[in-house]
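Researcher: We're teaching a course module on how sequence relates to structure. For the next exercise, students receive a sequence and then see the predicted structure as tokens, so they can try to spot secondary structure elements on their own. Here is the exercise chain.
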Amino acid sequence: MNHRSDSASGSGDGAFGQLLSQSTILNRGTDDELECVGYCDNSSKKVIFYLLTILTFGLFLLFLYWKPELECYWKKSICALYKADTVLLKDSYGHKYVSYVKTINAEKEMPQLSETDAYNRDNLSVNHVEADDTVRLSVNQDSMVHYFDHQHIRYVWNNFKNNFHRLEDLSTNIKCVSLHENYHGLSAVEQSQRRVLHGENSIDVEVKSYWRLFIEEVLNPFYIFQICSVIIWNFDSYYYYAGCILIISCISIGVSLYETRKQMITLHDMVKTTATAVTVARSEGCYEDIPLEHLVPGDVIAIPTHSSIMNCDAVLISGTCIVNESMLTGESVPVTKTPLSHQEDEEIYSPNYHKRHTLFAGTHVVQTRYNGNAKVLAVVARTGFNTAKGELVRAILFPKPLGFKFYQDAMKFVLFLACVAVLGVIYSVVTYIRLKAEVAHIVIRVLDIITIIVPPALPAAMTVGTVYAQSRLKKNGIFCISPPRINFCGRLNIFCFDKTGTLTEDGLDMWGILPVSDKIFTGVLHDPSELHRCPFLIGMVTCHSLTIIDGEVTGDPLDLIMFNSTKWTLDEPGGDTSRFETIMPVVVRPSSKEKFLPFEHDLGMPQFEVGIVRQFTFSSALQRMSVITRTLGEDSMEVYCKGAPEKIVSLCDPNTVPRDFNDVLHKYTIQGFRVIALGYDTLDSKINWHQAQKISRDKVECNLKFLGLIVMQNKLKEQTTPVIKTLRQANIRTVMITGDMIKTAISVARNCRMVQPRDQVIIVNAHNPDKDGPARIEWEPAEMPVEENGEYAEPDQESSGSIEIECAQPRIHLAVSGKSYSLINTHFPHLMQKICVQGTIFARMSPDQKCSLVEKLQELGYSVGMCGDGANDCEALKAAHAGISLSEAEASVAAPFTSHMNNIECVVAVMREGRAALVTSFGCFKYMALYSFIQFSSVLILYTFGVDLADMQFLYIDLVITTTVAILMGYTKSYHKLVAQRPEGSLVKLSNLLSILIQVVLAVVILVAALLYLRSQAWYKQVPLSKSLDIRVCWETTVIFAVSSFQYMTVAFVFSKGPPFRKPIYSNIPFLASLIVLVAFSTFLVLIPLDPFVKFFGMVPLQEKSLQFRGLILTFAGVHLIASIIFEYLVTSSSASRMLYKWLRRNRPSKSIYKRVQKEIENSDWPPVGQVTYETKNHRRRVSESHIIVDTLQSDSN
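Model: And here is the predicted structure for the students to work with:
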């Protein structure tokens, strides 16, 4: 992949140089970045390729099937991209993929436009300067369109840039105003044109046929190896053994096919759509029903009035929709989607930023509302796998590598076994040449050695622990769609939590309100229903996104609590869907007019009502929402805005904000209350209803009058504090990532003991450069909550649980806001590593910032877990090594794990099962390695005498002992406690290598000792050599078989470790019972060797010899058991061994970056509490270079 020229940057500049470039970078700067190299057919290479295929009887094709990229090297040559018929793609993880370039004849396959259609297209959509110009850019002079597909994403050749690029849709480079003005429906011809390029609008997870799955399974290297082994064993006259292995392999293939297809069907059913048709607007002004697969970006669709499922990502341009997005986010609270406003500026549409105006594929549209006879319309922005749902499904189909060293180390160990096999082959060849064996016999023995040392069942054995863990998690209501991540959970050392709905209850309790009058807080009112009519009350009853579904008021829990506390009623005139008949679609009024307006009732005046004319939905980025209202009988409309106090105050007239605002806000946030601010303003009386629908929110959300504060109580879940304590005791670092205020987050962190009572919290406040100086960071100590008597307040024991105060060294925790996080990342990138290592509370974080933080923690070497309710955490949940979504759905595409437990107890369960699964995988791997070495050693020892194990002896060892043990040893359940020690994550660690090496040496020593003891007997006579060298019934094979049978069970017992990660071995009843039965039967064969069994296993009758000899055979097995247990404990489990390993690594720097950062922090006076850090020219130079040197971690406290 080193053929890329300097001109192949994908920028599109430099016509001729770019035209001749052989490679380029696709999706530059994103997680999906790909290096793309062009290839075309080479006739001479093809001749060599087909010749090799014939000479190898097709085996060469098999290697190309396993490594498709070899086709490019053996059949094709590198060429300029514009001539390529094949592209070789390499992702950022080093994985290679082959895609074939396809061609569309635009003249033949694209319907021709009529003159009217062409005019409309040129002026409205396809060739609009801001619109989807893919058709125009992709059709070359020969009317040909070149493209290729990779992981369900299409890349087309761009004639202007002379480069491939991802097929664009309306989610990029489209102005918001353009979506209103330029998209009124496509003609059938335009739609057909786009469909040729964009393909069908479907997210179709292929369910392969059993026959196709069978072919793919059989061609797997594992089964190819099995087939070759069976052939070799038949040549070696091991007919029974070969037959049994063939039968078991067939059964294994059948089970694998069933499970694989079952998973495909499950995912297919989870993402499939039941709808078949959709109504689209045509450019002629009419509507037409078309198959939903025919939708393309730019289509205008009419949302059905009744319940429906979205099958594309679409921008709402008229009407309102109530949707349930639990399929994508796990959040089941209905969300109100409003039309994209008619922006007058140059704002570019973004599905993420404008998500409150975007209907995402896979979401359930519960209700629609429209104006009179008008329809609820939306412009299709993305289709198929390009949609938000499609991206999530692609993440399941093509998961990013976890980077887990266990699997990499396992493959390295298999290569090591292959090298050992080579040594065994050399020894066997030399031995049989010395014994003057025939060439055919030597070849068979050599191949037999290879089948022994490289165990074909190794991959399957390594997954046993994961399968059992997944089953146990499912019984506990935790569902996993990515089983490989279970093992990763065993190595987690940091866990991040969302706050609201995760650490705290979903619902809020209204604590009270603090209205403002004449710039003074009038005092706390605990019952808002006692408040008489005033702007503050009107703001509470109108500034929300509540709606009525099936006769009940539903919506965001915060809005619901706020509205219900006023005891007003919500009314939506008209039917469930047609609710814009009047000028005020939603009306709120007092539930008792006698209580509120007695004088109006006496005068016969109409009841007081307020209509909600327009809603600007809540935005995580803006941290606020607002509404435009009109009071019945009033001439002017009003705007009410609620949101984060600091945001609302910044939009208010300073003359309306109380002087003690910050003090009052601090008083409540430091106690953990959720504080919301309200502001309002009266609009110009000239603004009418239609103008209100088009006005931008920036024009109304300014110069507001500050109304006061709404204070809510968000209690901790009762399980939160015990779980945080468990994680802390297990040495798992906990971090809070929330969108709430920083002081509220600090209070919650203290209450749940994420921050210990005597720990210090430092608030990191970063500021932009201004006229007074460069960017700066202020390191301010956070205050402890203080009671009126001046003493430190202890957390509420009811909410936090009863826990003891631990006498530990006080720690320093950093609390960072989303704004400061962004500024530090921009102006102080060299401090970001320390911030991430020392930070415990990250508040006011947007969804993108949550994901960014998780990724930065991973870059530092942390194994990161994330738990959230799915609403604003989807990206972070997917990015984490173990993301757990708290959801009622059995499975969603929001995260790898979905928990029915509506609390964080699931975190401990997942980590316990992860540790158990990891230890089980290690144990099974080590067992399979020892099984191979023991059998390998046994066979080589017997080869020395020109003999080999009998057919039934192999059968007993491989099927009865090994298969039974390998399946059942992973059945041990996880330990009930989460301990501070973590299981090993690397097979090549010294302790694991020593463990395997010592066990191999012990096994070989015992085998050799048993054989020497046999040869020392006076009655012993060495077996005479025959010409065929095919002797299997002799004293050598009998003794080696008898002793080695016990050895397989011994290593299985030794590697089945219990606490602290799994329950004791005696708790695994099936495994223990199987060991007892196998040991008893093997003992029976030695002590009481009955003739039928002796003949069946091809043994020499042991009863002919003394009981002493038979007893000593068992003694060798007993000595091996005791020695194995002792050495395994000394090597891997004893405190002395751990101290020795630590001492050996004392002078080596840690491989984990975060540990090096921690050490530097401990050795320096950082953070600079109470000081200010300024950006220097050196810092700015680092920013401009966008380069952070990991190993140079200099403190900037001076």
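Model: If you want an answer key for the exercise: The chain has 45 helices and 41 strands. The chain has a mean pLDDT of 82.
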